[in-house]
């Protein structure tokens, strides 16, 4: 990512975007998140790929680590050094309780610039499960570029998004409102390619939260390698 790109990302991140509102929603949700999403077969399968494809003892960044379940625990139990970030203080506390072998920080993805948790090439792997969909589309390419730079050459990333043609769209979520963005799958492939990743695997799952009557969403899981 060029210096100009970092400057552009700084400008985008300081638009009038209420990130605190997103964090407040997840603070209120707390461990009800795992009750509403109890299975996560796609995420578990993708996490198993990442855990197995990384070198032993890899340093892995979990972006939007939530409660730490299942991903941070899965990676930690595989012997990797997990560093998780999340905007919600409640989620960070739950993650620390659930995965004591990992480290968790209350940070925005934009806070990773400037070597906050390590400079370029300081991570072997990245997990970003349903975290980048919390950003407006204008920010997603810059976030991907930042994560690309944090990976070592050839490093791996597991990314999931919901397949939907929406941008910063408000939705009801477990009694709260959050804003989400999504792409159709061909558009998502293009965005990650433009950010410097090769797609080495892909899966899609139909998923509906427990105890709701909403139609299933299509969850896309991309397995990526830093080109």
TrEMBL record:
Annotated InterPro entries: Methyltransf_25, Methyltransf_Superfamily, SAM-dependent_MTases_sf
UniProt keyword annotations, A-Z: Methyltransferase, Transferase
GO terms under biological process: methylation
Keyword Transferase among record annotations: yes
Pfam families, A to Z: Methyltransf_25 (PF13649)
Methyltransferase domain span: 60-155
Molecular function as annotated in GO: methyltransferase activity
Protein name in UniProt: Class I SAM-dependent methyltransferase
Protein species of origin: Streptomyces siderophoricus
Organism lineage string: Bacteria, Bacillati, Actinomycetota, Actinomycetes, Kitasatosporales
């Amino acid at each position: 990512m060029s210096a100009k790109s970092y400057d552009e990302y700084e400008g985008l991140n300081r638009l009038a975007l209420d990130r605190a509102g997103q964090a407040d929603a997840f603070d209120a949700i707390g461990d009800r998140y795992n009750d509403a999403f109890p299975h996560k077969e796609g995420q578990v399968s993708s996490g198993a790929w990442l855990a197995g494809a990384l070198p032993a003892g890899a340093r892995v960044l979990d972006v939007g680590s939530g409660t730490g379940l299942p991903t941070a625990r899965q990676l930690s139990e595989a012997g990797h050094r997990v560093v998780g970030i999340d905007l919600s203080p409640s989620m960070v506390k739950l993650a620390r309780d659930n995965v004591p072998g990992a480290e968790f920080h209350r940070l925005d993805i934009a806070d990773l610039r400037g070597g906050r948790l390590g400079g370029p090439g300081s991570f072997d792997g990245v997990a970003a499960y349903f975290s980048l969909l919390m950003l407006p589309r204008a920010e997603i390419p810059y976030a991907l570029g930042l994560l690309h730079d944090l990976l070592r050459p050839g490093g791996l990333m597991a990314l999931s998004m919901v397949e939907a043609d929406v941008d910063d769209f408000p939705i009801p979520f477990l009694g709260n409102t959050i804003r989400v963005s999504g792409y159709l799958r061909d558009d998502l492939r293009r965005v990650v390619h433009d950010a410097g990743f090769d797609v080495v695997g892909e899966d899609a799952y139909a998923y509906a939260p427990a105890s709701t009557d909403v139609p299933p969403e299509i969850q896309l899981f991309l397995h990526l390698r830093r080109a």
